[in-house]
Amino acid sequence: MKRIMFVFLSFIAFSCADIDRSFDKEVGNTKLTANVKYNPESNLDSLGIVLRDQGTPVANYVHAVRSGNLLFLSGKGPKQASGKNIVGKLGKELSLEEGYAAAREAGINQLSVLKMELGNLNKVKRIVSVHGMVNATSDFKDHSKIINGYSDLMVAVFGENGKHTRAAVGMGSLPGNMAVEVEMIVEVYE
Q1: How far apart are CA 31 and CA 35, in angstroms?
Q2: Domain assignment of residue 8, given as a range
Q3: In a 3-state reduction of DSSP, which class is residue 66?
Q4: Does one domain contain both 57 and 101?
Q5: pLDDT for the residue numbered 36
Q6: Chain segment 120-162, per-residue pLDDT in tens
Q7: 129: three-class secondary structure by DSSP
Q8: Distances from the Cα of 178 to the Cαs of 44, 71, 74, 101, 102, in angstroms?
Q9: Rounded Cα distance, 95 and 14, in Å
Q10: How many domains is the chain built from?
Q11: By C-alpha distance, which of 47, 58, 61, 187 is closest to 130?
Q12: In whole angstroms, what separates CA 118 from the centre of its chain?
């Protein structure tokens, strides 16, 4: 009876693409699903976010590397749809609000990489870890408030699966004087 129930639940779980596959009830080594909608693609649309082509890296690196069911994404800055980065130093040229917006732009760029790599954001199981770097003066103390722009976006798109571990650190400078740079580790469905 347990085996029949397991097969039935597994069939239901994997036949619905927009069902949350991260429900934590386990039978054997398989996680079962709950009837909770998980649809980052739809969330992206409802937020009015348009993803952008990230082009080819200009140096000797790649946008992402997959190892098993983990994707390691290279750092992305706050390049806007216009193609221009948000530049400046927090605590000097940029306000907290401008820094938050810059981190959100970096998040849109990382979502663009994820879409390019996976074809569909619904293949993201969870955002695992975020490392946010803030171009700041030596006396700036609100790094976490800046990187919240990135973290808040991940939660808006992926819900609870967007919550992650995080570092938010200050840097004396960043390439091209961009305001922030963020790298990320993502777990994907196999």
Answers
A1: 13
A2: 2-31
A3: strand
A4: yes
A5: 59
A6: 999 999 999 999 999 999 999 999 999 999 999 999 999 999 9
A7: strand
A8: 25, 24, 15, 12, 9
A9: 46
A10: 2
A11: 187
A12: 13
In this prediction the pTM is: 0.81
CA-closest candidate to residue 184, choices 92, 136, 123, 112: 112
Looking at residue 136, the DSSP 8-state letter turns out to be B
Residue 11, judged by CB atoms within 10 A of its CB (0-12, 13-18, 19+), counts as exposed
Q: DSSP readout, 38-57?
A: --HHHHHHHTT---------
Same-domain status, 125 and 77: yes
CA distance readout (Å), 51 to 55, 126, 154: 12, 19, 14
Q: Are 79 and 18 within one domain? A: no
- Both 16 and 48 in one domain: the answer is no
Helix 96-118 / helix 143-158 crossing angle, nearest 10 deg: 40
Find the CATH number of the domain harbouring 180.
3.30.1330.40
